[in-house]
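Record type: ASSEMBLY
Status: queued
Input:
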Amino acid sequence: MLNYIIRRVLYAIPILVGVNLITFTLFFVVNTPEDMARMHLGIKHVTDEAIIKWKQEHGYDKPLLYNKQAEGVAKLTNTIFFEKSIAMFVFDFGHADDGRDIAYEIKSRMLPSLAIALPVFFLGLFVYITFALVMVFFRMTYIDFWGVVLCVALMSISSLFYIIGGQFLVGKLWHLVPISGYGSGLDAVRFLLLPVIIGVISSTGANVRWYRTIFLEEMNMEYVRTARAKGLPESIVLFRHVLKNAMIPILTGTVVVIPLLFLGSLIAESFFGIPGLGSYTIEAINSQDFAVVRAMVFLGSLLYIIGLILTDISYSLVDPRIRLE
Amino acid sequence: MTSILFLCRMSLFFQIFPKMNLLVVLILLLSACSGTIWNNPYPSDDSGKNILYNAFAERPKHLDPVQSYSSNEILFTAQIYQPPLQYHYLKRPFMLIPQTVNKMPIVQYFDENNNLLPMESEVASIAYSVYEISIKQGIYYQPHPAFAQDDQGKFLYQDLTPGNLRDIFKLADFSQTGTRELLAEDYIHQIKRLAHPKLHSPILGLMADYIVGLREYAETLRKATAVAPKDAYLDLRNFPLEGVELVDAYTYRIKIKGKYPQFIYWLAMPFFSPVPWEADRFYAQPGLAKKNITLDWYPVGTGPYMLTENDPNRVMVLERNPNFQGEFYPAEGMPDDEEKGLLEDADKPLPFIDKIIFSREKESIPRWNKFLQGYYDASGISSDSFDQAVQLSGQGEATVTEAMTAQGIRLETAVAPSTYYIGFNMLDPVVGGRTEQEKNSARKLRQAISIAVDYEEYVSIFANGRGIPAQGPIPPEITGYREGEEGINPIVYTWQDGKAQRRSLREAKALLAEAGYPNGRDARTGTPLVLYFDVTARGADDKSLLDWMRKQFKKINIQLVVRSTDYNRFQDKIRKGNAQIFEWGWNADYPDPENFLFLLYGPQRKVGNNSGNNAANYNNAEYNQLFEQMEKMENSAERQQIIDRMVEILRQDAPWLWGYHPKDYTLYHAWYKNVKSNKLSYNTVKYLRIDPVLREQKRREWNEPVIWPIGAGVTVLFLSLVPGIIAYHRRERKVMLGRSAA
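Status: finished
Output:
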């Protein structure tokens, strides 16, 4: 298994370089270094001299990918792409265009993102699986039928509606929790209660239907018939046998997203005033801050790769037939 | 009452489900009885304190006064830093008064040989203007570690080692602070910082044209930085600047090229605030920037407030600077200020408020709802909540709705010193013209369009009435603006029944025919007239606005094609003169007509001059000559005459659709005092006062928790489980029976 992990980690390097190259190309197709300088310096009173100085100071005065004037390997290394990319592989994200340290920013915004994402993830997983199992248990009955109807209804409503509706009812009309905001330590709980509940509810429809489908598929397997034939109660069949055997598809969908929880949620964080990472990339794209965009895309792809490796490892843990070689 | 109801419901609940969630219900009951507000987003310890609660949507990028220029940045820096001058809080039109200076700066004029000239000298003979500024004694900086010294007078934190920084994560982690008196050299230091190669001051280019030696100074500093080790501290005290002179500890001079009367307004902006060298040296130490401990993040000022918490993703906190003293609420204002209660605090020491908490609210809906709950003291009005907040009286006057009145909320309106316009590119052959004949034709075309595009309708539909259609480039409350009949644009309006009346479409069509496009078709070729409107990429929300604009042109049979592009390409088109018709805007830097009229000054044309601000590329010899005359003059009847003539030329030539001047609507709670809208200066928090007792009382009244939904929710959840449990037992029994039978 160790060999497998090392191999996967090595595979990750060309993937990350590729992602970085694509991000770089896409970004600079839309924005030139001069555009970035103008965006940063503002519209009023900006001189050509100021733009040239800004580009020099931020290292954007070199060729993008290939330096014709340079000699030897410097043709590739004395470029914006190389100079801005290489440091990231040792996790030196550098400074944003406004001078702030990107690593510091990511670290300070990661925790609030996790504070909302982790409870939603784990509580959601518990709720979705429980409801899906209940619906499978009562399959072909009115509970199953109305459960599916409810799920479809929940799926059909935009997540924004849950947020605005939840804030209106719970925060504005009933005055039970703050409408938005964030606190440190235990004080954060009262701010997180509503976004977590809304986060779980807004994803319930799609997830419950997804898990129900997985469980129903398992229910038709021969081992289930055997378990029933042995006289096991339905609850034991479901919770001990079906659930365990449905772990592979469940893990496929869940483990891969665990590392990405760090990156937060754009809409929920915006509406609930959670100072997380959700909007960091979007804000950077809007302000043409390439340093932040490349750092966040790099981090996103790295976390995704980690998620995939974790998924593979988890397969081998839940299914002894799988060997990672 | 709610608690009693809740108790009744709970007792019923217990009768039905005696084992259910007893603990949860008890917790809820205890919380209900404690009398606290559940939805208060602030710590309960802060209740009833003299704190102002505000919101901000966009995080400030720079808090270093050499860089901060946007209003969302100056909102903070203006409370912390003190430039020499400020605007009078109550008097209108805007008037400069001393802030840290004893008296208004003395200006003297000199010729090429540095000989003193009389004040009334010809502009052409003035080679230099020298501003002598004397600051008050006894002004002290906020407590800051950069000033901290031991008993021997040695700085404690100016030679930090990596070991010293191990436990430092924010500025407050430095245990010792110090202060020192404000000196004239601090103002000089900041002027030098404008040229620092690493700071990228947005006004360096402009100021280098005026402050003697600043351009050369920037080059000197660039060279010094290039040879110094990376991130080394550049001690500006070792680099003299020709255009500034330290007279004594409290007096300095600034030497300006020629005559530039508008320079005095710059002395009221944060760019000219004092920055102590100790702060620069402190923040330049290795390792601090990595922890975001920079001057851009933690300002050091002498103003009434200091930034004590800076988490621009969540909250920024300003607290009273304990070393601030010596400033008092104005005793004079406008005639109606006394009636409005704005002089009740006359001569009282400033500031009134102890702390200001700015919370980041990116979305308007939660911000609005929290304002209604009393958790923000003031609020703007988004389009979504406009109808809920404001109603128009029979006379068209905006007032708050009954619901707002019942909450004690009041409305303050003010026309912003800004203008949003639509420009014609004068280099374009159709709307600008190349030959004299084409130019005449294009002028009539522009005049026809000016009549057709109905800005009264625009303001009514797209700005909820929050704006006034512009009659020219100068907004109200700026010198040179004319009101009433003498202020109307006669090309577009006539004066009827005491108000401006837009000219008819018939007149617009006649002008169009004179321009060579009868019925919107080219008289020579018969082809329909198609014009192009360049805009930055718009969302779906703006479709109606663009449709409306097409409809306006269609009224005189002109086809308008909207060319939407991203922001960068749009800017590029404007710089290269490839746009035909475009929209643009301008916010005043200072209340002088020069700051608007220069937007149409020929040498400021964008094409061929990237730093120019004349996006329409308008160039009129007479206008240019008048501008050059007017910009060097002090305000006087003669200057007003020149301004009137310049505006008249512009109205005739119509290089812009004059658009509108936006009107800001702000709502204030009853506990908010001393509000007088001031859209030019931002250092106004020190004048505000709140009644925290009234606020606390209202918050409790408005936010009593409604608990029954929790009980109802638990009940519904439990009841929904019952059929499932019954069905489960029934099914299990059935299976068992089946097996028994088998």
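Annotation: Chain B has a mean pLDDT of 91.
Annotation: Residues 708-741 of chain B form the longest helix (34 residues).
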